[in-house]
What we know:
The chain is an all-beta fold. It folds into three domains: 84 residues, no CATH class; 100 residues, Immunoglobulin-like (Sandwich), CATH 2.60.40.10; 101 residues, Immunoglobulins (Immunoglobulin-like, Sandwich). The strands form eight sheets. Strands 8, 9, 11, 12, 13 and 14 form a six-stranded antiparallel sheet that branches. Strand 16 and strand 17 form a beta hairpin. It starts with a strand and ends with a strand. The C terminus is likely disordered.
Amino acid sequence: MIATRTDSGSTRVGSTDAAGSYVITGLASGDYRLRTELMWSGLLYGDEIFDDIPCGPGGCSSMIGATIAVVAGQEVTGRNFDLDHFGTLAGHLVSQASSAGLNGWVYLRDSNGVELQSTPSGSDGSFGFDHLWPGSYYLVGRTFDGQYLGELFDGIPCPGASCPVTGGTPIAVGVAANVGGVVIALGPGPGITGHVTVGGAPTPGVGVDAWSSAGLHVANTATDGAGAFYLPRPAGGWYVSTDSAFGAIDQVNPAIPCPFGSAWSGHCDPTSGAAVTVVEGPPVGGIDFALALSPSIFRDGLESGHVGSWSVVLP
């Protein structure tokens, strides 16, 4: 407990006992303001200024509150405090595509965008904040693997967790309220997405490669069951090619055939195509490849006994 004299700003301090009673001694005559100061952060209660003024996230001010007249040698009693319990806020950071929990970081901000707290999410994506004063809060979630785009709750892209809270959904926390069930679902981060077909059919397992402007191989992935792919890449210009093992003619984006083999195998220049410009934000989509099946060539006469000609079978 801190008593501050209104005219000089001098203070005297007292502590509560196990029953919550306190005594501040040695006060000279004058007017004072009184406030609490919890000394242990594990106490889930908010400090107050007498009479019933919550200190709030910014702390207590000695310039406000009811004044208490003290006369030296006389006892003033009945100046009691009923502290409010802090609120809590909890939820999960998950993948938008699979709902799986994500290891990442979640930031708690006020209506001015000031960061009040931050916390990592657990292996299941769970996170929580405590010691919250009544009010409205904004949440931003992100990961650090480059595969997901940061998000301002609820559903607002926030690359690198750097964005104004304007447009976000405020979350109200009341006195002693335990707010839960908040889900921050992250979509794919900067990169390149598209589809691959072979002979007109969506094809899983086709390799897709990314290359730098110097022709250096920097990343690869494979198409899923629907022939779709996602290549995480930071902002910049990247060349994209396929590496198929399905008897198809590989390509360099956009639709430049590699008749002698893929860029990955060294038979095609990946920079002969057009670079895909990736920006800090959602992935660039529509980088699709429609691969044709390559002709089959064989020597005639394996059964007839003569080897005088070749046959070509077109798909």
